[in-house]
């Protein structure tokens, strides 16, 4: 009996590169899905730099143990969250672990956490193609994850790393559900001129070259950054006012399409 | 899908570790006190070897590493708990800026195995590593600027390096033991994000010959600073001196209207407040400039291409602060 038996679909959010917005995409994808009435879980397997508690304004929450297993944090009636961030005594504490220990923790997250019935479990990952990624794929191989959403920023230094992640997906037979180009342009609040700080088009080209669905270019939105920084636990309801909400609802539809048409 | 650990396709053989089987979960570590006796050691094929504690004592590679590195004056680590904050960008600038002084010999070592960015940023993407009887030769991008990265060893730049920790550690050791760095004034080590195998290994290997310190890079928003706190905690635990904190991507000046705005707002005081909290020097902040990203993509030196931009001036000031911290 495993804690993820009640989970219908599993989607991973991956990127070879760090700081491109994996956690931000995970959060927004989860909110878009729950706005469509889905039961969603977020599992954050970035053990040395967990960002999900901060993204959702859940820092300081404690994970409880029940007879069925660890109880994930209930962020909303349709959203459950689990992250190593909830297990630290002090938010500044470092987790200095070598591979085998990280592997064991991820296994525990996937077997000992009682997720209950979920439509979607979204797994947020650290950058790279190493212990965490190998561990999660090995642990999930019987569950056959539905696929991965790849996040990149437009510049070629970032897409070069994401190409490696694509090789990883091919090697482990993980379907790619699509590519999101994040941080694509920034609109100046003074003159409304859009500047491509990290250039543009990199993600789209990456998707075209590999024959993947291009899920969209998401601009930098300082409002969303501010919303997250405010640590308002109502992010989930406030998000619908963000201009990104409309775009992410479309992205979520594109992600869901191949999954839902299968079942 | 039986196993998803791929073998290295590099022509250079990689020595990872000398145990016959991979470490199990909850492995206390072959060098630890409980090696071979912990609960998780039961049934492990390595148990007898670990329990015999044969390799306990100094790592036989350490004297070799020490001998290799004795002609390197200063060793710097560029660290950050967070990814994509500009570790590699700053490393490349530090490299170019140090190497602008013809009297200095500079080396850059990229230990990000899964996402090596240095070859592209230094404009050396297609280069390969040559071996001679004195070891692996670094790739030279200027007469006095050599570099080493796993990016030079991949037959195809899109190949993924799907390695567990132990294997990454083996290559880091080789970068220090087998690379013919020669005499260097500065060796700058670019690291991956996090606080895991790579960081522990490079620290262990360099400890004996002495690390001058770490430069910690962050961006202004708390989501990033949260992870950088962990890195500072790691430095404290590992006994690495923090030379200072750099705040990157702070503020953006619109090229159209010259109006300034904060893309990643420093709601908790940014890098400066972090430096005060941990009582480490603040080395300066560098604004966002779209041309930095472009220069990195092209492999050009931003400092040489746009010497008059505000970002160049800010970077040079940070580098001066780094140098004065090292010389102290």
From TrEMBL, chain A:
Binding residues annotated for [4Fe-4S] cluster, in chain numbering: 188, 191
Source organism, top-level taxon: Eukaryota
Molecular function GO labels: 4 iron, 4 sulfur cluster binding; ATP binding; ATP hydrolysis activity; ATP-dependent FeS chaperone activity; metal ion binding
SUPFAM superfamilies: P-loop containing nucleoside triphosphate hydrolases (SSF52540)
GO annotation terms (biological process): iron-sulfur cluster assembly; tRNA wobble uridine modification
Gene3D superfamilies: P-loop containing nucleotide triphosphate hydrolases (3.40.50.300)
Annotated family: Belongs to the Mrp/NBP35 ATP-binding proteins family. NUBP2/CFD1 subfamily.
Function noted in UniProt: Component of the cytosolic iron-sulfur (Fe/S) protein assembly (CIA) machinery. Required for maturation of extramitochondrial Fe-S proteins. The NUBP1-NUBP2 heterotetramer forms a Fe-S scaffold complex, mediating the de novo assembly of an Fe-S cluster and its transfer to target apoproteins. Negatively regulates cilium formation and structure.
Protein name: Uncharacterized protein
Species the sequence originates in: Tortispora caseinolytica NRRL Y-17796
TrEMBL record, chain B:
Binding of ATP, residues: 81-88
Residues annotated to bind [4Fe-4S] cluster 2: 254, 257
Pfam family, any one: ParA
Superkingdom of this protein's organism: Eukaryota
Keyword rRNA-binding: no
Keyword Iron-sulfur (UniProt): yes
CDD domains: Mrp_NBP35
Entry-linked InterPro entries: Mrp-like_CS (IPR000808), Mrp/NBP35_ATP-bd (IPR019591), NUBP1/Nbp35 (IPR028601), P-loop_NTPase (IPR027417), YlxH/NBP35 (IPR033756)
GO molecular function terms noted in the UniProt entry: 4 iron, 4 sulfur cluster binding; ATP binding; ATP-dependent FeS chaperone activity; metal ion binding
Keyword annotations of the record: 4Fe-4S, ATP-binding, Cytoplasm, Iron, Iron-sulfur, Metal-binding, Nucleotide-binding
HAMAP family named among the record's database cross-references: Mrp_NBP35, NUBP1
Function (record text): Component of the cytosolic iron-sulfur (Fe/S) protein assembly (CIA) machinery. Required for maturation of extramitochondrial Fe-S proteins. The NBP35-CFD1 heterotetramer forms a Fe-S scaffold complex, mediating the de novo assembly of an Fe-S cluster and its transfer to target apoproteins.
Membership in a protein family: Belongs to the Mrp/NBP35 ATP-binding proteins family. NUBP1/NBP35 subfamily.
Protein name as it appears in the record: Uncharacterized protein
Origin organism lineage: Eukaryota, Fungi, Dikarya, Ascomycota, Saccharomycotina
Gene: NBP35
